[in-house]
Amino acid sequence: MEVSSISKMVALMVLLLASFTTLSLGQASNRGGGRGTRVGFYRSTCPRVESIVQSAVQSAVQANPTIAPGLLRMFFHDCFVNGCDASILIDGTSTEKTAAPNSLLRGFEVIDAAKSQLETACPGVVSCADIVALAARDSVVLTGGRSWQVPLGRRDGLVSQASDTANLPAFNDPINVQISKFADKGLNTQDLVTLVGGHTIGTAACALFSYRLYNFNNTNGPDPNINQAFLPQLRALCPNGGDALRRVPLDTGSVNSFGNSFYENLRNGRGVIESDAKLWSDRRTQRYVQRFLGGRGQASRFNAEFGRAMLKMGNIEVKTGSQGEIRRVCTAIN
After folding, report:
1. Residues 265-290: pLDDT tens digits?
2. Which member of 74, 191, 284, 334 lies 3.0 to 4.6 Å from 187 by CB, making a disulfide possible if both were Cys?
3. Looking at 50, 73, 74, 77, which residue is catalytic?
4. Are 155 and 85 in contact (CB under 8 A)?
C-alpha cells in the first residue's frame, strides 16, 4: 500500500475517533435531564441573546444591587418547581409567584425587559426559561463570581400553581429534609452545600429568622448555634416585635460580593438562616463546607463548583423540542 493511502486511512481513523469522542461528551453533558439543551442553541436564530440579557441585568444591578441575588434565587425557585420552565413568572391568582416562599423574590421586571428586547430582535424564538437561566449566571458574574457557559433550548411551561411550591427548600428545614428535597431533583449533598453558597450575596427578612433570637423552640432563649458575639448584632437589626420585613445580609460583610466567605460565617456561628446554619452542625454537610474554607484556592474551588452545580440544577425537568411553548410575554401563557 502506498504511503499516501496509509496516511489517508490514518487521517480518517483519527477523524472518526474524534467524532465519536465529541458525541460521547455531548451525550454525557446532557445526562440528568438536559434532553436537548446545548451551548449556542440560538447561534443562528438569535445570535445576540446573551448580550441582550446581560445588558438588561447589568443596567438593573447597577441601579439596584439587590436585583442580583433576586435573579439568582428566582432561577433556584423556578427550577425546583416543575423544572426550569419559567413557571414562576406567570401572573394570576394561585400561581407560583403568589406562593409564600416566592413573595419576597425580586427582579421580575428585569426578565420582562430582556424578553421585550428579544421579541424585537428575534420574535418568538427565545424562551423565558432561558432568559431566567442566563440572568442568574450574569448576576453571579456582575457580583464578582466566575462565569460559565449556559446550555440553552429550554421551553416555557404551561402550568403554574402555588400549591406546587410546597416542596421548595425552606428556611427552617432540618438537614435530612434538605438532603431529601435536593435528592428528589437529582442533586446530591455536595450540590446542596454548593448551591446554598449563593447566599453569599443578598439578604433575608427578619421574619425568616428572628424566631432564632428570642424564644427558640420555646426555650426563652436564642438558638445556641448562634455565635454569642453575633447575637447582639442580629437583635439590634431585628428587635423582638420589630419590622418583620427589614432586610439583613445573609453573608456578613459580603452582601454584594460573590465569594466563599459565606462558609467562614457558617463555621463561626454567623449563619443567619437556620437551614444554612445547620450545614455546619451536621457531619454530612460539614465536610463540604470545609472544602470551601480558606483563601484564594478555596475561593476558586467554590466558584468552579458553583458553576458546575448551577449547570446541573439548570437541567432539572427541562422542557425541550415540542414540549411547552415559547411565550410571547413571560407573565402569561400564550
Report:
1. 999 999 999 999 999 999 999 999 99
2. 191
3. 77
4. yes
